[in-house]
Amino acid sequence: MSTWLYQLNPKAWTPETFRFEIWEGKHWHWTHGSKRGDSTPSIGDTIVFFYSPSGGDDPGIYGWAVLERCDVESKTLYFIPVAPTNRLKMDPWWDEAAQKIVDDIRGPMKRATLFQIAHADALKLRAGIRQWLGGT
Fold this sequence. Notes:
The protein has 136 residues and is α/β, with parallel strands linked by helices. The protein has helices at 15-21, 85-88, 96-106, 119-134; strands spanning 3-8, 28-31, 35-36, 46-51, 60-71, 76-82, 114-117.
């Protein structure tokens, strides 16, 4: 199983729209543009939703989802948002730790939609989300 960072464009899909449209358990699908990573997203993978500080004023980690399937030809991801997305979308994780992890994941080429996350970074990401939500 892999974890992927999906970088949302706040000019094309605002955080306010994300908050209104995305709900835990509701089936969704989105296309993706450029992809960084050696593999193809597959069933059961985790997709983490992220708004960059460039181009918007409300950056951070907004939630995550389980991938149902990936249509390679159309570059479409079919997914189901899961907990704690409903909480994160209202209080996105964005501090120095989140910024460092996201910068490490994206590397020097930050202009893509989908980034495969190394296992060590996925563990840091999960721990960071737990700390953010726990207030520690």
